[in-house]
Amino acid sequence: MTQVKMTVNGKTASGDVEGRTLLAQFLRDDQGLTGTHIGCDTSQCGACVVHVNGKAVKACTMLAIEADGATVDTIEGQANADGSLNVIQQAFQDHHGLQCGFCTPGMVMSAAALLKDNPKPTEAEVRHYLDGNICRCTGYHNIVKAIMAASGQDVGAIAAE
Ligand code: FES
Ligand code: FES
Question: Among 40, 52, 57, which is best to mutate for testing ligand 1, by the most ligand atoms less than 8 A from CB?
Answer without folding.
Answer: 40
